[in-house]
Amino acid sequence: MATVPMEHALILAAALFFLGLAGLLARRNLLFILLSIEVMLNAAGLVFVAAGSRWSQPDGQVMFLFILAMAAAEVAVGLALLLEFHHYAHTLDADAASRMKG
Amino acid sequence: MLRLLWLIPILPFAGFALLGVFGRKLRPATAAAVGVGSIGLSAGFSALVTASFLLHPPAGHNHMQTLWTWMRVGGFAPGIAFQLDALALVMVLVVAFVSFLIHLYSVGYMRGEPDYSQFFAYMNLFVGSMLVLVLADNLVLLYLGWEGVGLCSYLLIGFWYKDAANGRAARKAFIVTRIGDAALAVGLFLLFYHLGTLRIQELMERAALQWPSGSGLAIAASALLLGGAVGKSAQLPLQVWLPDAMAGPTPVSALIHAATMVTAGVYLIARTHTLFSLAPPVQTAVAIIGAATLLLAGFSGLAQRDIKRVLAYSTISQIGYMFLALGVGAWAAAIFHLLSHAFFKALLFLAAGAVIHALRNEHDLYRMGGLRREMPLVFWVFLIGAFALSGLPPADGFASKGLILTETWNSPLGGTGLWAAALGGALLTSIYTFRMLFLAFGGPLPQPVARRPGVTEKLPLLLLAALTILAAGLNWPAAWGGVSLITNFLHHTLPAPPVRTGRVAGGEAWLEVIAVGVALLGIPIAWLLTRGAPATVRAALQTRSATALRGFWLGGWAFDWLYDRVLVWPLVWLARANEADFIDLFYRGLAGMAGWFHQLLRWTQTGRIRWYATSVALGALLILALVIFL
Amino acid sequence: MNVVFYLAGAVAIIATVLALSRANAVHALLHLVVSLLAVAVVFFVLGARFVAALEVIVYAGAIMVVFVFVVMMLNLGQAAAAREREWLRPGVWLIPALLAATLLAAVVYIMFVGASRDSGFATVGPKAVGLALFGPYLLGVELASLLLLSGLLGAFHLGRRVRRLEPEGGG
User: Fold this and answer.
1) Cis peptide before B570 (omega within 30 of 0)
2) How close, in Å, is residue B586 to chain C by CA atoms?
3) How far is it, in rounded angstroms, from Cα B608 to Cα B612?
4) Rounded mean pLDDT of B254-263?
5) Shortest CA distance to B111 belongs to which of B37, B27, B38?
6) Contact, B122 vs B131, CB < 8 A?
7) Is the per-residue pLDDT at C170 higher than 50?
């Protein structure tokens, strides 16, 4: 298929990952935090797929499948918790969830 | 029969064990029987052993008996072993018999006391330790006995512990003697390090071979041993504890602080005489300490009001005589004086006890009187004791003190100065002794007699008085007929005293005459100072300077005052200043720092998710940096 | 082919940046969907056709839809949007951007130190993936299904009685 050097694929994945990280650290809205996490997971999956394709093995894609399953489960539960939190605190401010302070 | 040697110290320990465990459950009579019986048996066995020793002397007049090896560390293997030679035999006899008589006296004297059985337990422990001390064949076992008697001294001085002052006196005695004990311990270390053994016989032989006379090591070792002796025997500069030790019951004062424990220092120096002979400066120091102490204590005795404190200072003074004898090389004379002092001082203390009990626990001489007619027996035995103490015939004090004076005059290590000091001391002794006699027994009776001595108290008084006179018969000055049974016997172990050229061995008659004359002079002087004081004397005694001098002597030449300011107060100040404990500060500082860091790190626990995520990212960065750059 | 890769990569990055910097949640979600589609193209280019499809179907198609549902359910309104804009002042991005950039640089550096400089991707078809899933990774598949089941149950339980927790001040 393509003759792109693997490093470039990895750089792309790294860039996406750290963008997600920046979003995670910067945004206060819990929804956007969860979103950033999804971005990061996706980037991690990209690494696996690239590696698998490089070595002509299906293991990379299998790994991506598992990551996908995990992301789905995590989103389900995470968003349910988000709704709970919104009902409880009437806000989606992550900084409001600081009962563990001190 | 000599194989029964080990029973002599063991029996008192057995008595202690029985009384210690069962004491509270026993009736007083049973406790007394156990306490006195154990010492009595011990004394009995001492007599048997003595008879055997005298009739069938062992080789070299030395019998050794090893019970077991105490410990074995490297080349150090002291044993629980006893050595019986002439010196030890004399000491054993003195300790065993005087202890027995004092125990017998205590049965009646301490009747009605709470802790009655405890008293006998401690006394038994003491006698056992003292016997171990004198019979020990190595210095480690001797040190064990040394410490044991120190402990018992503490326990018995503070016997009436409910009064805090007694506890203080006991602590003072223990701490002051501890200073000496520390010196002694260092001396033992030195001896073992350089000579490789602490068995006394071997030690003396090796020291004589390896150390030339006047060598630094010999001087150091004997000086340290002298330090220990000075503490235990209450000589300068560690004499401050003995007068305060009179807070204990009178039998305790008689046994421990007159007849036995305080003489342990004299015994130590006599035992290790070879070392002292190898260190002439130290031996001279012994003599000078003895002479200075006997004078100092003599003056102090003049000013005391408490009858027991007079006797305490007189003990310090008489041991000064023994030290003087040791210092001039008259080893046997010192031990003979030790023996005679044990008899007459115990006698005087026990008689004083009778006086104190008679006048309802009165200790002040100026509130006593008239007991000559009320208690004639006590008066006559006290008189015999007073004669002995002053050095007047026919009591043994005359023979022993006279012998010391003679030897001081004769010895090349002695001299006119030391002899004159000793003579001055004899005058002082006579004055304060008869002052005691006149004040306590003369004049009017201040109150009716409350308590008279019983049989168990009178018997020891009579026996001690008899022994006081008997001992004189065994050793009489050469110039007046000359019997030397005791000193000759001691010369099996101790060297004979040296004689300066131009002097007569055994002394000349005029020396004795002067000694007796000086002692006799004291009697009228004492009378003039007390009962028969004319108006001029009374007025002179009330003057400002006389009162100041009396106060100075009463306080023991201000040694307590000096030690308080030089040693005690700085230490107390230091302890108070360090109340916060600067070493503890370090550990508390560590804990404080941990707390401070905790407070600091608390700020990182914000409870905010983004903050935590940021720190995770930072951590990841850090690790990556480490991976890249290391 | 390579051009497609770099193009799709650029789109993905730009879309992600946009997604994470919007104040309006729905806008952000839509941007993210674009980003995921671009990543799917990248997968395809790399020869992983199967997961390219999966990416579109599951990730962009299911997970993002769930996000949209939740946003709709929350019904946040104008006040929330205003607050969101307030939270998105430029200064907020300083430290995260710095951190992310540094980490990116570090990772890139690691990649190029001792890199083997090989290239080329091979196509790995669905058949191979399927064989792997039913072969060595069978257990993993079962565990993943368990995980999904537990996720389902958790979400169901949490969503069951919305008024489970007391309002702020009590809980």
Assistant:
1) no
2) 41
3) 7
4) 84
5) B27
6) no
7) no
